[in-house]
Specification:
Blueprint (H helix, E strand, L loop, with lengths): L4 E9 L6 H9 L6 E2 L12 E2 L13 H5 L3 H17 L11 E6 L5 H14 L8 H5 L3 H10 L5 E2 L7 H14 L5 E8 L4 H9 L28 E9 H6 L6 E10 L12 H14 L8 E3 L6 H15 L1 H6 L2 E2 L2 H4 L6 H15 L1 E2 L22 E2 L5 E8 L3 E9 L4
Parallel strand pairs: 4-5, 4-6, 9-10, 9-13
Antiparallel strand pairs: 1-7, 1-8, 2-3, 6-7, 8-14, 11-12, 13-14
């Protein structure tokens, strides 16, 4: 018999705050977390802006030794994971550890450590490379560290699908619970790619915004958009089988009721231009949820602020929903405020959807000023809106390589 999957804990380390409440309040108020890069000297860089994590103290969650032995992406993941786990109030002494899983991924893994250690080897020779180089760079260490910290011995994986990573991790965790393999799963994504090589690589791929003003740089669906803005951080959710959560009196934030994942099989960076793969993923999520497009009250779009993504995603929504319903459905890109957290994007956007349904408030797309005739849907421009009756939300993630992942969330009403 299929099980129901609810959310009982959440944690967030983001450019808009290092707790879920701070992150969500800033999203609601349209605060921009993008600024000039402070992590390294950008003098020789064409792009000088990003959405860095601010006001984060890792020592609240781990020892100085742990900090030194981990790349920043894994530090963010462990911090967000501890937040979520503590929020859930799961007691591992009362749980079957073999039925508690961890599914946390990263798009780039330890890119900062990789850059640092390659430069060290070039300058000082191979004998000076850190003995922890491998464990600090491989992407599975986010999941591994969380599992070690809480004692979870169920499935422990790192799904890597570029910008769809966080959503795929949550989707697979949902399926593991739905089909009875796990009682609970810590799921999400983490990224720490704002470093010299990361910014240079995305810049030379012509993917990043060249807007010099950080507060105007990310403008999804706006006609003047010219690229995405990199972001760092982590989002982690605790997913739990409903009866298991009810039996221990857990607080329930929301429910996952559908998941769709497809591949474009088209291009390494460009989305399929008509949005067919993304549309199919949305339809799959709706079908599993047992709802029609008319019942969707909000879509958190992938909305990267690139020319190709925003047009392709608009077409995909129309294809999945039908033109008339698509135009009536409120949509926003919270990346306009957070930047694009790559492998962590889908995870913090999942939290956005859960909070939007819980509070009945839809966050805006900021910096939306010049309509684009090819992007003609309701993108909740600049100011968020009340939506007290909102019951269902979709979260779209579309990654390099043609990875499409969509989650469907349902407001928790106590039954």
């Amino acid at each position: 018999m299929e099980k129901r999957c609810v959310i009982t804990g959440m944690g967030a380390i983001t450019p808009l705050g290092s707790t879920v409440d701070t992150f969500w309040n800033n999203l609601k108020n349209g605060v921009c977390g993008i600024d000039y890069i402070k992590k390294f000297d950008t003098t020789d860089y064409k792009v000088k802006i990003a959405a860095e994590v601010k006001d984060f103290d890792p020592e609240l969650y781990m020892t100085k030794k742990d900090i030194k032995r981990n790349d920043l992406f894994a530090i963010y993941a462990l911090a967000a994971g501890i937040q979520a786990f503590e929020d859930s109030k799961l007691d591992m002494e009362k749980e079957d550890a073999d039925r508690i899983g961890v599914l946390v991924g990263s798009g780039t893994g330890g890119l900062m450590t990789m850059e640092e250690q390659v430069l060290r080897m070039a300058a000082k020779g191979p004998s000076r490379v850190s003995p922890l180089f491998i464990t600090m760079t491989i992407g599975n260490m986010a999941a591994g560290n969380i599992a070690i910290r809480i004692g979870a011995k169920g499935i422990c994986e790192d799904i890597v699908t570029a910008c769809a990573t966080g959503t795929n991790c949550i989707g697979d965790a949902y399926r593991n619970i739905k089909h009875g393999y796990l009682d609970a799963c810590i799921a999400g994504g983490a990224e720490g790619a704002i470093c010299g090589i990361g910014v240079a690589g995305f810049t030379n791929l012509t993917a990043l915004s060249t807007e010099p003003d950080p507060k105007k740089a990310c403008k999804p669906f706006d006609k003047e958009r010219n690229g995405f803005v990199m972001g760092d951080g982590s989002g982690i959710l605790v997913l739990e089988e409903l009866e298991h959560a009810l039996a221990r009196g857990a607080k329930i934030y929301g429910e996952i009721v559908g998941y769709g994942a497809t591949g474009d099989a088209y291009h390494v960076t460009l989305p399929e231009p008509e949005g067919k793969g993304a549309a199919k993923a949305m339809k799959m999520a709706l079908k599993e949820a047992g709802i029609t497009p008319e019942q969707v009250d909000y879509i958190n779009a992938h909305g990267t602020s690139t020319q190709a993504n925003d047009v392709g995603e608009t077409k995909a929504i129309k294809l999945a929903f039908g033109e008339e319903t698509a135009k009536k459905t409120p949509i926003s890109s919270t990346k306009s405020m957070t930047g694009h957290l790559l492998g962590a994007a889908g995870a913090i956007e999942a939290i956005s959807c859960v909070k939007a349904l819980e509070e009945g408030f839809l966050p805006p797309t900021i910096n939306y000023h010049t309509p684009d005739e090819e992007c003609d849907l309701d993108y909740i421009p600049n100011v968020g809106r009340e939506a007290k009756d909102a019951a269902y939300a979709l979260s779209n993630s579309l990654g390099f390589g043609g990875h499409n992942a969509v989650l469907c969330f349902k407001k928790w009403t106590g039954k």
